[in-house]
Amino acid sequence: MTVNEAQRWLLARATERGVELEVLSTSQRRLTIEAHNGEVSDVSMANSGGVGLRVISAGRVGYAYSEELTEEALAWTLDEAIGNAELQQSGSATLPSGGKLGRHDLVEEGLSATLEEKKGTAMEFSRLLSLGERVQAVQIARFMEGQEEVEIASTAGVEGGYRSGNDALLAALVMRDGDSVKQGHEVDAQRSYHQLEPGRTAQRALHKVGRHLGAQPLKTGRRRAVLEPEVVGTLLSLLAYSLSGKTLAEGKSRLAGKVGDRVASELITVIDDATLADGLASRPFDSEGTPSQRLVLIENGVLRSFMHNSSTAARTAQANTAHANRGYRGTLGVAPSNLILETGSGISVGNGVLVTDLMGVHAGANPITGDVSVQAMGLELTGGEQLPVDDFAITFNLYELLQRVVEVGDDFEWVIKAGAVVGAPSLAVDDLSFAGG
Questions:
Q1: Per-residue pLDDT at 320
Q2: What CATH superfamily classification does 3-206 receive?
Q3: Is 233 exposed, middle or buried (0-12, 13-18, 19+ CB in 10 A)?
Q4: CA-CA distance, 170 to 417, in Å (whole number)?
Q5: Residues 6 or more apart whose Cβ sits within 8 Å of residue 392
Q6: Is-contact 254 399, C-beta < 8 A?
């Protein structure tokens, strides 16, 4: 069977058995090209996919999935989903009603270059990275391509599909200047293959790692801090935890009960926009088939909304914001698409510390309380000069820091953190605690 034939077959059987059913099909194709010393060292291609069933039986929810599309496999999967629902406690779940969503191609010809062209890009990227005068080793020079096709249909009338994808270059370097050795990475992801520029990405990687060579320990004290976009992106992905309707429904959000209240500096506006033409995670609808929208989460410092799927919206008596997220193997969750902190008028030059990297955030940050204590790297700003510094830690509370932002930069960058796509400019705060080595 094709995916669409499987969906129709499953919906008919679910109707016969008197249960609600949502069928989500996802398929992924991945291409990875590794290059070393200007030559291709490895090419790998991987495909995966299947159909995920979400059954509602007497208000109870059950899940199951299959990677086979035979009638026998689909019948077993439907039985499994219904059985799993019957094992749950009583509930009041329903599927969101919907209609025809159409078919959308967000890729079109954007990834249409030949395999040989993509190999050439990887080789050129590797060659340009190795030209850096202080490069000790190019650990990774990689071209990556990912495409995903999504199809959804339900007994509540939802039906539609879309294709999305992007290409990316990844570099990981070790650089040396005398006794000083530093390593780092750079990722550039684009919606179209033709938007990739190996020279630009190689220069960014060499600059980002090379500027830390010769770093000296930073003295302990409180200083003005400027957080680069990559650092702000990390903090924005941490903030997303408290903006999730799932977190709110579970009683874990620090922002619970604060819609309409000021939770950040008036310079801070955070949105999630799945409709962006150039967004790396854009989608026409979410994993329940709810049409995408631009959602303002924080406006000039005031909390306006949380991100919800149909279930978390019902549990919290708030509106569904089209942020349902699941793969065919998973259960229903909440996730942002293109999560963005909007740019400001720029950051003035002054003394302080430019924070460029945070390390160990997964262990040193508490997403519930917002407390952060991590090792960092950066550049000390003194009299117009930038001096590399390391061996220091920074400690702050995320929610208090957002209240104390005094400037927002105009230097927007997309950042990919743990699979999430966030976009952010630099931020400045007048006073932050730095603990030197």
A1: 97
A2: PmbA/TldD superfamily (3.30.2290.10)
A3: buried
A4: 14
A5: 217, 218, 220, 375, 376, 378, 434, 435, 436, 437
A6: yes
Residues 6+ apart with CB under 8 A from 198: 121, 124, 125, 128, 169
* Euclidean distance between CA atoms 2 and 84, whole angstroms: 26
Distance CA 393, CA 218 (A): 9
DSSP 259: T
Instruction: Quote the CA–CA distance of 91 and 60 in Å, as a whole number.
Output: 5
Token pair recorded at residue 233: 């992106």
Q: Do 322 and 292 meet the contact criterion of CB atoms below 8 Å apart?
A: yes
Cα angle value 71/73/74 (rounded, 5°): 65
Tell me, what amino acid is at 284?
P
Distance in angstroms (rounded) separating the CA atoms of residues 435 and 383: 22
Q: Break the chain into its structural domains and give their ranges.
A: 3-206, 216-437
Helices 71-86, 3-17: axis angle to 10 degrees equals 50
User: Which candidate, 437, 420, 298, places its Cα nearest to that of 361?
Assistant: 420
Write the pLDDT tens digit of every residue in 270-304. Answer: 999 999 988 999 999 999 999 999 999 999 999 99
- pLDDT greater than 90 at residue 420: no
DSSP string, 32-88: EEEEETTEEEEEEEEEEEEEEEEEEETTEEEEEEES--SHHHHHHHHHHHHHHHHTS
Instruction: Output phi, psi for 68, to 5 deg.
Output: -110, 145
Map residue 52 onto helix, strand or coil. Answer: strand
**pTM greater than the 0.70 cutoff:** yes
Closest CA to 141 of 204, 187, 192, 175: 187
CA angle, 173 as apex, 337 and 227 as ends, to 5°? Answer: 50
Alpha-carbon span 258 to 395, nearest angstrom: 25
pLDDT over 80 (residue 417): no
Instruction: Identify the H or E element spanning 237.
Output: helix 229-243
Q: What is the DSSP code string of 268-309?
A: --EEEETT-TT-TT--SB-TT-PBP-EEEEEETTEE---B--
Task: Using DSSP bridges, classify how beta strands 427-436 and 324-325 pair: parallel, antiparallel or unpaired.
Answer: unpaired
